[in-house]
Amino acid sequence: MVDAVHTQMHLARQGHLTPEMRRVAERERLAPELVQAEVARGRLVIPANVHHLAKGLDPMAIGAVAQVKINANIGNSAVESNIADELEKLHHAVHYGADTVMDLSTGGNIDAIREAIIGASPVPVGTVPIYQAVAGMSKVEDLTADDLLDMIDHQAAQGVDYVTVHCGLLRSHVALALGRVTGIVSRGGSLLAYWMMHHEKENPLYTHFDRILEIARRHDVTLSLGDGLRPGSLADATDRAQLAELAVLGELTERAWAADVQVMIEGPGHIPMHQIELNVRLEKELCHEAPFYTLGPLVTDVAPAYDHITSAIGAAMIGWYGADMLCYVTRKEHLGLPNADEVREGVIAYKIAAHAADIARRRPGARDRDDALSRARFAFDWNEQFRLSLDPERARELHDESLPAEYFKSAEFCAMCGPRFCSMHITREISRKQLHRPAEVPAD
Question: Is pTM beyond 0.90 here?
């Protein structure tokens, strides 16, 4: 192991309250000592690469005592590649409430795009290093362990705050996934599986895990231990392949913690609703309560073009049961690369899911905004309703489609009910009449 240790976990275990821990405590309305204890224990991670901190990262945390977080995926593809487009997606993601973003670029100019994203992003940035490593090869078979490790180090030096590394997918697991309805749906997982079968060797990310820990320690990169065998359909949910990998991730979590490296565990993408609670319980047991970062999950497979909805249903449920960060899904899932508007829509869908989960988990103050908006709604204070909305611009836009004049910002009706059939207006009228009714004089 290297001598220089900069990780938040190491400092917490040494009794230090770092500026990052104090900032998290302020944002989460928690005692700084609780943040320190949870980071030391591994139940809370602060993804904060030392190089990104120097560029203006605003520290945040993911874990059981923190609010449920959401991630937005951005990045180019071999079909669509433009730095300006990715920065526009980043702006939309952060503006509408993403807590982290992942740059999943697989097309051209990847380094320049990532440097621009990190330089402009106040939220943590994650990556999947194998994407860029493979993008630079003519064939997957040409990839070496050194290529993978060098790419992780390169991205860490750029300032990436967390990396998805599919270290728990072993060669013996591949056969378990080949009989599935949708096989291996993780891009990184499928690339590693192909490499292992071609070379008849074990996963280099597993065999060289100690080298990954050295890199993570040097830059304080949080490891997001990827679910290379996550189910891509309801038929494959919670099967032997998925659970075999999860057990290995539990082993790797303990090894990472022994090296003072922060870890979170990635979770499945398609799960029927009745299996969601079980998946959370298994992750927390097998991976020793490490933070759980899930894609969705999608609770049905029949809605291409609407998977921001099918997945937000599952995201709200898995957040309620104990997941700590939710990776958004856009309506373009399974169909194409999302544009900036679809990023906005996906972020809002997941802000709803995460907020609903925080309310269900009875977070202190989680419902304050809901109650304030409800009071504004009953008072027909339309501008205050808009201000408190997760997407004020869209709420105002939809209201003003039918009633744009400023007069209607205090009117006691909307375009749906009109002035005669608004139930809240009628209720207010009842209250007014009751207030002005003469008091009854008791009989002698």
Answer: yes
